[in-house]
Specification:
The structure holds three protein chains of three kinds. By secondary structure, chain A is of the alpha/beta class. Chain A is built from 13 helices and eight strands. Chain A folds into two domains: 112 residues, no CATH class; 116 residues, Rossmann fold (3-Layer(aba) Sandwich). Classes of the chains: A alpha/beta, B alpha/beta, C alpha/beta.
Chain lengths: 247, 199, 458
Amino acid sequence: MRVGLFIPCYVDAFFPEVGIATLQILERAGIDVVYPLDQTCCGQPMANSGCQAESAPVEKLFVKNFKEFDYIVAPSGSCTHHVRAHFDAIEQTSEVKKVRASIFELVEFLHDVIKLNDFPWAEFPHKVGLHNSCASLRDLRIAVASEINEPPFSKPLNLLKKIKGIEFTAPDRPDECCGFGGTFSVFEEPVSAKMGYDKVNDHTRAGAEYIVSADMSCLMHQKGCAERLGLPIKFIHIAQILNGARE
Amino acid sequence: MTISRDSILAAVRANCPKAAVPMPRIRTFDHDKSALLDRFRLGFELLGGTFVESAPGLELNVKIAELFPQARIICSAVPEVAGTKRLQDIGHPRELDDVDVAVVRAAFGVAETGSIWLSEKELGVIALGYLAQHLVALLDPSDIVVDLHEAYKDTRFITATYAVLMTGPSATADIEGVLIRGAQGVRSLSLIPVRRATG
Amino acid sequence: MRRLDHAEAASRFIANEKHEAFHDARLWDLRKKRDRVTHAIPEWEELRQLASDIKEHTLTHLADYLEEFERKALENGAEVHWARDAAEHNQIVYDILSARNTKTLVKSKSMLTEECDMRPFLERRGVEVIETDLGERIQQLDDEPPSHIVVPAVHKLRGDVSAVFARTLGSEAGNEDVNYLAETQRQTTRPYFLSADAGMTGANFAVAETGGFVVCTNEGNADLCASLPKLHIASIGIEKLIPKVEHLGVFIRLLSRSALGSPITQYTSHFRAPRDGAELHVVLVDHGRSGRLGMQDFWYSLKCIRCGACMNTCPVYRRSGGLSYGATYSGPIGVIIDPTFDIRKYSNLPFASTLNGSCTSVCPVKINIHEQIYKWRRIIAERNQLPFVKKATMKAAGKLFGNPTLYRAALSAAGSALEDLPRFAIYNWFNAWGRQREVPQPPPQTFRQWYIENRGQR
């Protein structure tokens, strides 16, 4: 199987370590993985603003870059959901449909596709609060949302439980949105910041040293809030823990 | 006025979504018919109802006097309790304004929610169940159904002009979420399990 | 009509720290109560699907059910009126009242009458209208619309209520005891129940099979409105229809659990026919509902049973307050309905959302709220209702992200800009991100640069 690695624009620009960890963990699993150099963005910022016309060239470029791969893996729940569910600004050719059906978020890919069950190289002896982005949780359904009356399961927890030394803390509101919301973070800044403050305070009160998530966009927003508040809590992407980061 | 009616119906028909969704069937969810009175009591008390233990030979008039020693005006819709104000004498429902305690018999109860069912027949005058300061309801334990699905199969819902599923007394939490019992209607709802008189 | 600025209204709400903290905690508590009772019902998700199917079935056969309802209601001795819009509704109600010389009308909570702005219409024509629901009464006396469809004064603290009552009802100034305040409203409203010429309610459900309708309250005020005056008027939106009595089993099990986390409201009242010697009038109201029925992506919003669960769970609603939406319907359901009333005024609302989807998860009739919010954004962009700044930014972003070379160039420029600009330039108030958050530090290399260095060009 050939895997195309999609790195979200903000990860490429601000958090390359997340991209590196994603690449390395796929390589550790023996995957033939390539990062197409001409990729830019999945188009969410435009599409989530309703701007279909502006999304079209971005979607076209995405399909061009990734059409040759068996799987596309992205360390981002929201980008994955966007391609899978909303990539319709362009004509739905068989190529486009294939790309849309082939994209997986990293946790989905490790848990469901290659079923990577052990991480012997990893150790993370810290208290950790898990944050599932709303796209991962309610759209990709990587875990059961607390509103739903269904038997509980959690793919990220299933993976993280395997990590030596890890301890989980439980915030008061585990599933409440952290307030990033893409362009919401800028156009509805007062509410966005309040939500972010509440989120990081909640995890801090629960005793977390780190907040871990499969979505760096949420973490970027929470980190910005925590730093402004002067909170010591730290932030790490799940790929980094699974890849063996010690801190 | 028929213009409006026709215009609305025409618009509704014209805009009707193409996919005609079939009517679903509702299955039976709760087959457990045990301990209905106990389950009823749980729900009833949860919503603020006062469950009154009774024993055979209970003298209702005495019991009511015991529960409401300050009550002067008692209005009863049941033969077991005489009361001081007669429903037959009421001209306008507002004349029930001074009733301290009203007594009614529920037609049936619902175990799932702790609700009692009353219609214009059981209330005599509908406003009785709302203007009285306190309401006492008699309920025959064999008149308790399992859940709301079963309750809604009762044909009296189709024949009654007014029917209420009443669960506990009047309540509100509109100010800072603080629970108040006795908002606009009755301040208390007491339930006494009493078999129906036979014959 | 000027565009409503939700973000600005929200920032004012958040600035009121004590009020915002209480509002958020109170509604989250309702959400937690909802979770507790719904998780105790093994068939909960099945009930939601049933309710959704019943509503979709009804809406796709609505005209037939409306006719059946009317037929039965007329057989029962009720009078049935039809109102195409708010103005017609208000006129119909006024005509019924004035023909009977009505001086005072007592009413229970009805979002439909709010939607139609009925009260001022009647008051201007000499009818005194008394809101009898405690939350609605507080808002009426304070001359403010309700902020939440189930708990209308949830944004107020007891001190606010005390001040309103002292000012308008002559109660003890400074007495903030909630029992005292509730008792004040009970005592001052009661005379109106006893003397009113007419009573008005809304309806949660209208049953085609019987021609009757159901009103759910905790206070019993709807029953007082209906059982004392000789005239009962019920305003009912045409989407409130359900086919049969047995369907109430499903909806009543879902309604209060979703709204307040209690198994049922204290009073679930079923009205089928007028009392002896009294009149019952039903006003069926369209006001945009038939139009919405024809909207391929949005007709599902008509399934709404007005439980308010979406508001309780919405993290944006809890922190901005219902009044920040500037409409009768606020929160997630408001976001997908209000643009049908005025697309320009409410063009902002679909963006007052993070698309987190919690609303969709709690909706008892499975309205796909957050997906509709997403779709509304497209409509608003297509109808040219986006604010200029956003439109311009997205145009620029589209060009940039569509062109790899341009994108790389911009990235390096932005990165170094962030490093070189003095702090004040980053954190000045034009930079919305930086107002309350630190900006991420640009790393020495982008991922792409690292990849080329470590894995080579491929």
